[in-house]
Amino acid sequence: MNILILNPPFFKKFSRPQRSPAVTKSGTLYFPIWLAYCAGVLEAAGHRITFMDAPARGIDLDATVNQVGELRPELIVMDTSTPSIHNDIVVGETIKRIVPDVFIVMVGTHASALPGETLKEGDAIDAIARHEYEYTVRDLASILEHKGRQGDKEKALKAVAGLSFRGGDEIVHNRDRDLIENLDELPWVSKVYARHLRIGDYFNPNALYPMVTLITSRGCPFRCSFCVYPQVMTGRRYRFRSIEDVVDEIEYVVQEFPEAKSIFFEDDTLTANKKRCMDFADALIWREIGIPWEANSRIDLDLDTMKKIKAAGCRELCVGFESADQDVLNSMKKGIKLNRMFQFMKDARTAGILIHGCFMVGFPGETRESCERTIDLAIKLNPDTVQFYPVMVYPGTEAYDEYKNIGWLTANDYSQWITPEGLHNCVVRNETLTSEDLVRLCDQGRRRFYLRPRYFLYKLSQLIERPSEIVRTVKASRVFFKHLIAGSGV
Fold this sequence. Notes:
- This protein has helices spanning 33-44, 54-57, 61-71, 85-98, 109-113, 115-121, 134-150, 153-157, 189-196, 228-234, 243-256, 274-286, 303-311, 326-331, 338-351, 368-381, 398-406, 435-450, 453-465, 470-486, and strands spanning 2-7, 48-53, 75-79, 103-107, 127-129, 163-167, 170-173, 211-214, 217-218, 239-240, 262-265, 293-297, 314-322, 354-361, 385-390.
- It has 2 domains: 2-173, Cobalamin-binding domain (Rossmann fold, 3-Layer(aba) Sandwich), CATH 3.40.50.280; 204-391 and 428-486, Aldolase class I (TIM Barrel).
- A 7-stranded mixed sheet has the order 2-1-3-4-5-6-7, with helices on both faces. Strands 8-11-12-13-14-15 form a 6-stranded parallel sheet.
- By secondary structure, it is of the alpha/beta class.
- 44% of the residues lie in helices and 15% in strands.
- The protein has 20 helices and 15 strands.
């Protein structure tokens, strides 16, 4: 079957696959890793795949439609997100005018959280493959290729777990598909990158550039109320690839992408299971794989584990400190203690691991004074880099439901989740702070952290001592400092 995997056109460099989709102030552009996994499963099933990542390649709607007209695909797998959903439906409608018989299935967080609403909004969208969708799309493709041509297609579609579709005048929601237990059976996503993508198109300012993004697990055992992927896509249950399979893929990356300077592991929390983390590090050391890597972590990581993963190539960890208010941390179900943060930073420095710190403002009960204490906390912790954001809420999360029920959502439609330029927008308020207040506080936090003479001296010495950091620092700074000085325009 002729299938198009489509990350649809929107803003150039619109990072749709990340947890908070937008054009970022640091120039970040995530690999379309979930689409790539789906492409690998479909190729393994014998289908002909064309992979088009329009935001990464700067392909606009007209060029996309022209290519679709030439390809004449029978099935299109289209990614979506909350801020781009209206645009993405228009893309589907435009494609259908050129190729009326093509079957379009949407995937991703927004469509998974709101499948009925999404299908009702866009007649051009034929189905939604909810949550982990690789095998749902594979089964759908099989039906469209065989059973759908031989008999009652609607009856056949009702057998596809994880699928929502338009059945006549009603929306049909099939039962949820079970989460994938044996992650080793999935094709390596890096092989899909090698066949279809250019790794230089993608950038994570927390990783050396250019880099490759992989995962070693799915799901997250923690309960953070705002985090979209565990709640909407991969679930709370932690599932692992075998260490052997992961390390084999890392060796493949080193061989096939000699230009890659690092690997970013996009697991929700790579370090959540200490024993597996230590075993993973031992395997990297034993195989003498020297490529640096980065990952998401939490502050409960201990010094012994940090030393081991540092020896195995860990260069940086991305960590959510979030707030200086313990009550706020408790309300977001973060499951961390303030008094642990400073020990974590001390241990990271002892181990020689860089830390990117994430901080948020705008939770219930926060005031201007408590938000400013969070900024003070970031400066005292003094990680390598930081980000400050108003709390980002997306359909399907507990945080979204909470703000919506209280009446603290300030956006009238999903397109307002980003600014007219495609940057993140603040769509919440709380008891005492407006959306504009929260944006100004985040601008204040970035300026206070990054415009310190001490920070400039630190970065200068880092670039002298670690020349490998120069490319990623310069690449991120070119865009970031323009926004740092100008602010967010509120």
